[in-house]
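@channel sequence for tomorrow's demo:
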Amino acid sequence: MQLTVLGATGPIGGLVFLQALAAGHRVTALVRDVCALGPGGLQVHSRHPHRRSRAGGMAAAGVRRLVRLSALGSGGTVRRQSLFQAGASRLVMGTLMADKGVADETVAGSDRDWTIALPVMFGNGRTVPGGYETIPLDGTRGRVGGRIGRADVADFLLRAATGGQRIRRRVILTR
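structure tokens (generated this afternoon):
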């Protein structure tokens, strides 16, 4: 399968890139010095209204499938975050999380086949890809906390991109 990885030099994008190559996929890496669909820093999204139209470029480019890495706590997803993590996110990354929420809503409002991954806090240490839990954002379970390894997140992103499951869904990732 032909895949394009935006942010392939980042800590998770690099893992997606390597996992995709190891699985035999043809991979194009798109890189730059800031976040692929985010502000690249703690900037207020209203100063960058052009970002909202980026997802619309998918149709013009013929892209049918998009798997987006966001974060639990972005936009309205804060209601599913553990109380501790919600407070920490608001304090440290408030405007960034708001911007991610705007981008998530833009993607979710498109007519593309999208999946939005919402990992909890990243943990350090080794993990075995595949040993993580996926929870639908709109599922019945309450607040979710914990940590997840970057290799697990990369594994989910690649599986979502190549497996055709969880289309038009937001999925919480935790261990």
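heads up for whoever presents: Strands lie at 2-6, 26-30, 65-69, 113-119, 121-122, 133-136, 147-148, 169-174.
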